[in-house]
Amino acid sequence: MPIRVAHQRTQMTLLLTALVAVSLVSLLVGAGEVGPLRSLAALAGTQDSDASFVVWQLRAPRTLIGIAVGMALGVAGALLQAVSRNPLAEPGLLGVSAGAAFAVALTLVMGASAATLRISVAQLGALVGCLCVLSVTRVRGVGSDPVRLVLAGAAFSGLLGSLTSLMLLYDQRAADEIRFWVIGSLAGRRLDDLAAMLPSMLVAAVAVVLMARPLAALALGERAASGLGHHPGLIRWCVVACVALLVGGATAMAGPIAFVGLVVPFVARAMAGPDIRRTLWFCLSIGPLMVLAADMIARVAVAPSELPIGVLTALCGAPVLVAVVRARRLPSL
Amino acid sequence: MMQVEPSPTLATDALDLSYGTRRVIASLGVSLPSGQVTAIVGPNGCGKSTLLSGLARLHKPDKGAVLLSGEDIQRLPGRELARKLALLPQEAVAPEGLTVSELIRFGRQPHQGWLRQWSAEDQQVVEHALHAAGLEALAERPLEALSGGQRQRAWIAMTIAQQTPLLLLDEPTSALDLGHQIEVFELVRHLASQGRTVVMVLHDLASACRYADYLIALNDGQIVAQGAPAAIVTPALVRALYQVDCTLITDPDTGSPLLANVRRACS
């Protein structure tokens, strides 16, 4: 055990260093004309109003939001996987993000303006999506087979996605307002969006800390967890609420981004071992790392235009999905 | 020597348990002898595992109650119950990579709280549980690297770390070969010798006779016989439970009943 802990401390230090480095680079590079050197000068405080506008008003919020979205999606993925005991349970794949996006699109079509109630509507949508998914796991035969759950989730996601597209097809104004948002992107987000998201993240963080011990015990099975004095049903409801807060918030800021909730806990588990309490800590650094890295590539790969970030997370997530399915250790989570 | 508080009594009062509309246990009243090993036996589907779930509060009664020292367990807070009564579910699975000592540490959860994080005492209890289960050498091994018997002993060690006077085991030996079964049963006897009350569901009547002090024979959700194995096990009971005929002889070493010449009952 001490060996594992010491090893993990080193890994954690490396991850945090990498995160600081990636955040810094994220301030320096972009699709526009302000290159790394000018950005660095602006960071150092030279009078270059263009560059400092780009760095402080565009890239800094974008970086912070990327960090928040990464944390939220990584942690939500780990939580969802812990309660469904399914390493493939991922908010993006299972329709939780799609539920959030659908709810936002629906309110837009019904006349609301995008910014105001986006977060709470998205969270509500995520909650409904989450409940649909988990009730599917209750259906005989589906819950015990991780792959079938993902199939059900994919079908649900697809359905909501096409309904969302259909609504936007009929409503030009809504379509203009959220065209970029609906494919998932960190471009053009403002700090206000992040500020609106923070309370939810705090609430979820407190809830997760309070639930840490029973959540870990749930890995031994519901009956064993009950035997240790926990209430698995209650824990499941709290987790669903947290996932809805986190995924809804993240989706409201950045649109539906798939695979982050799959890849991040997968990597975190490989580093942290089977205890969800350690896994969650690792998710907090790996999530932002993945989102920021994907966002940077999205900015520079086809400069001067940008790729949607979801394309890159999918590129990185699909192989992980295949690897998890092929590893044949699914039921043991 | 591990400290175990004086055993509280566990009993049921007119207990009804069902799955949906199907009544599995009907109006069952039983008192489990303190400080002894009780085995619940009976044919498949007779309700023995359901009864154990009811005793552990995993199954909410329709009517009646499970009484722990006279108090309805439905009224006890979860953590308090888990400090009095430990449960090992059937075919418990641990996440891959979990080590023996990590598993045993879970047993301390009912004793931890917001103001009471991991303590030196917890560590000591874990080490004691490792010792009691004979797993010191394997403490840092992942569970999947152990034999079936060792793995089951590790799970029992987790319940030992819970430091409860009552221990409920659901078919603790069902997937084990004979040698590994003996490992587990000897550990169970050792735990009872320290004053614990152990209740286990067993499908094997022979090992129940050998290792239990008290048998509860269940058929169709009703108790058909209860008492010391030597006192209650008769060819008629075996026939009533399992539809087999047998000859009973007495184990010359232990005095417990042995089933010989077991064959399908000719009706």
UniProtKB/TrEMBL annotation, chain A:
InterPro entries cross-referenced by the UniProt entry: ABC_BtuC-like, ABC_transptr_permease_BtuC
A Pfam family recorded for this sequence: FecCD
GO biological process: siderophore-iron import into cell
Family note: Belongs to the binding-protein-dependent transport system permease family. FecCD subfamily.
Topological category with respect to the lipid bilayer: Multi-pass membrane protein
GO CC entries: plasma membrane
Transmembrane feature ranges: 12-31, 63-80, 92-112, 149-170, 191-214, 234-267, 279-301, 307-325
Main localization (coarse): membrane
Organism lineage: Bacteria, Pseudomonadati, Pseudomonadota, Gammaproteobacteria, Oceanospirillales
UniProt KW Cytoplasm keyword: no
Compartmental location: Cell membrane
Keyword annotations: Cell membrane, Membrane, Transmembrane, Transmembrane helix, Transport
Gene3D superfamilies linked to this entry: ABC transporter involved in vitamin B12 uptake, BtuC
Keyword DNA-binding: no
Coiled coil: none
Gene Ontology MF terms in the entry: transmembrane transporter activity
The protein, known as: Iron complex transport system permease protein
TrEMBL record, chain B:
Keywords (A to Z) from UniProt: ATP-binding, Cell membrane, Ion transport, Iron, Iron transport, Membrane, Nucleotide-binding, Transport
Localization in the cell: Cell membrane
Top-level division of the source organism's lineage: Bacteria
Segments forming domain ABC transporter: 10-245
CDD domains reported for this sequence: ABC_Iron-Siderophores_B12_Hemin (cd03214)
Gene3D superfamilies hit by this protein: P-loop containing nucleotide triphosphate hydrolases
Annotated membrane topology: Peripheral membrane protein
Gene Ontology terms describing biological process: iron ion transport
Main location: membrane
PROSITE patterns, per database record: ABC_TRANSPORTER_1, ABC_TRANSPORTER_2
InterPro entries: AAA+_ATPase, ABC_transporter-like_ATP-bd, ABC_transporter-like_CS, P-loop_NTPase, Siderophore_ABC-ATPase
Pfam family, one: ABC_tran
Cellular component GO terms, alphabetical: plasma membrane
GO molecular function: ATP binding; ATP hydrolysis activity
Membership in a protein family: Belongs to the ABC transporter superfamily.
Protein name listed in UniProt: Iron complex transport system ATP-binding protein
Species whose genome carries this gene: Vreelandella subterranea
